[in-house]
Every structure is written in C-alpha cells, then in structure tokens.
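ESCALATION

Customer reports they have been waiting on this structure for their group meeting. Please prioritize. Original submission:
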Amino acid sequence: CIRALNQFKPFIMAADLPLTVKFGTAGIAGIMGWCCVHPFNTLAVRMNLASMQPGFVSMNFFQFAAKNVSEKGFFSLYNGLSAGITRQLFYATSRFGLFEVFRDQIAQHRTVGVPERIVAGLASGACAALVSCPAEVSLVRMSNDSQLPVEARRNYKSVIDCAIRIGREEGFAAYFRGSAPFVNRAMLVGVTQVGSFDQFKQMYDESFGLKRGTYPNVFAASMSSGLLYSTITMPLESAKNRMAFQKPDAQGVLPYRTTLQTMRTVAAKEGILTLWSGFLPYYGRCGGHSVTMFVFVDLLRDLYSARVAKNTPVA
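Update from on-call: job pushed to the front of the queue and completed.
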C-alpha cells in the first residue's frame, strides 16, 4: 500500500529552482489555498471575537456555523476574501519563499537540522508579518464587520476601500494595530508550520515509508504541522484579532495595547480558554491551508519542471 502511494509523484528539489519560481509558486499556491479555506477563517475570527458582542451566548462550532449561514447566507463566509487574497500575496510569498532561501543558504555551510529550520522559520515569519500587517488588519475587520450591530459597522466595500479608510480615519499607525502579536505569531508559524512541515516530511519518509515529495507525504506532514502550529499560535491569534478589530472607548483609549496585556485581560475577564475560542475552525483554516498550499506548491513546481524538461534539448 505504501509503495503504491509513493508512486503519486516524483520529488522535486526546491534548491534547484530559480528564486522567481520559489517566490512565485509560494504566493500563487498561498492564494489558491486561501480561497479553499477562507470560510474557516471567517468563522474562526467571528467565533473568536463573539464574546465581545452584547448578548453573547456560548455555542459549539457547528451551532455557530449553522447560525451564521442561516442568518447571513453561505456567501457571507467569503466576506473579506479580497483582503485575504491580498494578505496571501504578501504573506505567503515572502514567508514560504524566504524560508527556502534562508534554509538553502544555511545548507551551503552546514547540515540543515531542527535548529537551522527554527532559525530560518523565525526570520522568514517575522519579515512576512511586517510586510503583510496592513492586509491582516483589513482581513480581520472585513471578516467580522457583519457581526457588529448595524449602527457600529464600518461597512467596508473592498480591501482598497478598507485600506483607504483606515489611513484616512485612524492614521497610518492603525495599519499596524496588532502587529506585535501578528509578528510573534508569524515567527511561531514560521517555525511550527514551515519549519516543522519540512521536518515532518523527513520523519514520514524515514519512519513511516511515505516517500518524501509524494502527495501522501505532503498531506500527512501538512496536517501534522497544521495541528501543531494552530495549537501553539491560537492565543496570539486571539490577541491579534482583538487588537486589530478594537475601537477606542468614550475617552478615546484603546482597551488592548500590547500582546501580553491583551492576553492577560481576556484571560482574567473571560477565562483563559477564551484564548482558544474558535479553535476548530482555526485548525480547519491552518491545517486546510497547510495541505492545500503545499500541495499547490508542488503541483505548480511540477508544471514548471515539466515545462523546463520539455523545452530542454537532449544532449
């Protein structure tokens, strides 16, 4: 059975690809994957921020999803898709692309193991988050705007309208509201998703017979890395959502100011498990995006390699 699964595709060495192909396939695959999992992200954001709304009633994921669909329609789950695509254009392209660049540079000087992957993941995650933070703020706001009372909604028309209004109404600093937990989360994601994905691929190859580079290997490694990073990063995701979505009080003071203060405030007022509120759709987003993104990366690189091979004259 394992032997049959391993025939699904040949392994392609990422180190042999040009930089433009590494970054291009990462960005396109990130966008393709996001289109598949965007409804999970919308539900995760809404469920995570639901306790901030008046009249909040706790419910499980399936009840919450059914309520959202029945009240607002299925396509409301795609609110903020343009912001999500914009985010992936910057975030996935730089995070996955830079990780491979950093990893391959390290490999020229020493054997790449877990510590080296951690360093590459931390660096690539931080760089990607700083670049894509304005798109992340837009995504959070557009995904959850319909959950607010009608009179409190911002009613953004598109990601461009959202970006223009944030700058005009709240100033440049608002683009980076929640940037600290976003950068912290992205660094952990760089380690636990991209870095552990690379390590899980090696583990499933050596210990379970799923040949590295085959689709079963990619699927198993993606779901494993997705579970690991969603569990670890959920509190930072909660802090980032609250900081990005918040509004000043009557005195013009923002309730959430730093990552640690946000997590402490939420834990003290609503219980520490609130930081993991919306975990199931968050894992659906994390695991689902890990699987779809990495599979699409391999598919796109397959197509590129096949085209190169076809156009290369035989000596």
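Sent to customer with the following note: Residues 4-8 have pLDDT under 50 and may be disordered.
Escalation resolved.
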